[in-house]
Amino acid sequence: MLGQVFRGRAAPFRTRSPDRDRQSDSANVVLVAKAINEALRAAEAERAGLARRVADVLSRAAVSVGNDVDEYVDRDDTDTSHLNNMDAEIQSGQNRLKQLDHNIAQFEALKTELGLKFPDVIVEAV
Question: Are the beta carbons of 33 and 116 closer than 8 angstroms?
């Protein structure tokens, strides 16, 4: 019975060449490297834009606060409310900047690790 299985009309089993396997593996590693680089670029762009906006609102808040010693005593309630809202937005922006810094560091670590795990594939140039 086993002889009948091997004498069937199916084409003989063949594998790809080792060179073709290396090309396929390299292509997969490059796909991962491209994904990491794209995520890194997006996080860096978001960080740069947010940093500019936070710096801008910090400047506007500094001007709005005033520089008199007792400025807070005779400030209108609407001005105080506006400053409190700006403070909350600044804090939110700064928290997001910290998270983006963490993410960027992790993406960089992933790139480094990918390069260490697959030294034959150039992942930096992707």
Answer: no
